């Protein structure tokens, strides 16, 4: 567990590279914009309203850290779609965010299958949309071998851990979920047979009855997903519900007044 938390902290402390990897012209996006997101034109880029940080060149294409942020006075974003243009399933995830996460500072790890723009399209409270993104050099993230053998997958799948800590006067929550998130493009390293797609497709996180965030996801969220986010605590327990594409469901509740790891 200590190793997992150490790796998590290193990966999600925030992409350290200078953010000079602006979005590039993308014929793929020209098709996706209308066909998938029903957009006629690109939403405006406004780093104060919404920014996306990502490494220029990924250290590991299967666990690329993505950080979404807003300026302190930005209008709240209630819904957001994360798109990786060149992935086999470009829509990585669709999020809804509660008021407690505003202004947004939210991190997740994704798979990037080839050199690609990674972009977020957010819908603000006033109904306007805004876009942010970076061009990431990575390859093979969706077909990268799983990090654990199948016996370990069966033993640990669905386990969760939650951490809450104070950083520079802000409360930071970290949610860790054990799940292989098989993409359908990987092979069992022992049998060399293809592993069927099996991934978390729904996630609901609340404090008491108040929404923190929900996620509807595809194959691009990394194995053993980790979510790190700033939030305004209300003193209520943290409730997490997870569903995957095989129909499995897990639920955990974590005490609100315990800093550090609440559950093994």
UniProtKB/TrEMBL annotation:
<dbReference type="InterPro" id="IPR013783">
    <property type="entry name" value="Ig-like_fold"/>
</dbReference>
<dbReference type="InterPro" id="IPR014880">
    <property type="entry name" value="SoxZ_dom"/>
</dbReference>
<feature type="domain" description="Ig-like SoxY">
    <location>
        <begin position="46"/>
        <end position="142"/>
    </location>
</feature>
<protein>
    <submittedName>
        <fullName>Quinoprotein dehydrogenase-associated SoxYZ-like carrier</fullName>
    </submittedName>
</protein>
<dbReference type="InterPro" id="IPR014756">
    <property type="entry name" value="Ig_E-set"/>
</dbReference>
<keyword id="KW-0732">Signal</keyword>
<dbReference type="InterPro" id="IPR038162">
    <property type="entry name" value="SoxY_sf"/>
</dbReference>
<feature type="domain" description="Sulphur oxidation protein SoxZ">
    <location>
        <begin position="167"/>
        <end position="253"/>
    </location>
</feature>
<dbReference type="Pfam" id="PF13501">
    <property type="entry name" value="SoxY"/>
</dbReference>
<dbReference type="InterPro" id="IPR032711">
    <property type="entry name" value="SoxY"/>
</dbReference>
<feature type="signal peptide">
    <location>
        <begin position="1"/>
        <end position="18"/>
    </location>
</feature>
<dbReference type="InterPro" id="IPR030831">
    <property type="entry name" value="Fuse-rel_SoxYZ"/>
</dbReference>
<dbReference type="Pfam" id="PF08770">
    <property type="entry name" value="SoxZ"/>
</dbReference>
């Amino acid at each position: 567990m200590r190793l997992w938390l150490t790796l998590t902290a290193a990966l999600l402390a925030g992409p350290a590279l200078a953010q000079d990897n602006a979005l590039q012209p993308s014929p793929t996006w020209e098709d996706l914009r209308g066909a998938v997101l029903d957009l006629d034109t690109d939403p405006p880029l406004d780093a104060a309203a919404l920014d996306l940080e990502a490494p220029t060149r990924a250290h590991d294409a299967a666990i690329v850290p993505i950080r979404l942020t807003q300026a302190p006075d930005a209008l709240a974003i209630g819904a957001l779609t994360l798109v990786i243009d060149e992935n086999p399933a470009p829509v990585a995830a669709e999020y809804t965010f509660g008021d407690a996460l505003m202004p947004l500072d939210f991190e997740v790890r994704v798979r990037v299958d080839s050199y690609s723009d990674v972009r977020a399209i957010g819908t603000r409270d006033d109904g306007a949309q805004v876009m942010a993104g970076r061009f990431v050099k990575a390859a093979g993230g969706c077909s990268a071998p799983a990090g654990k053998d199948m016996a370990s997958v069966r033993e640990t799948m669905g386990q969760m851990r939650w951490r809450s800590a104070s950083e520079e006067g802000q409360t930071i929550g970290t949610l860790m979920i054990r799940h292989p998130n098989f993409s359908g493009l990987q092979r069992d390293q022992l049998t060399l047979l293809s592993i069927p797609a099996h991934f978390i497709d729904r996630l609901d996180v609340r404090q008491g009855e108040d929404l923190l965030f929900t996620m509807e996801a595809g194959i691009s969220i990394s194995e053993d997903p980790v979510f790190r986010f700033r939030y305004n605590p209300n003193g209520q327990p943290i409730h997490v519900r997870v569903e995957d594409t095989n129909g499995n469901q897990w639920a955990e509740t974590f005490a609100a007044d315990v800093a550090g790891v609440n559950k093994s």
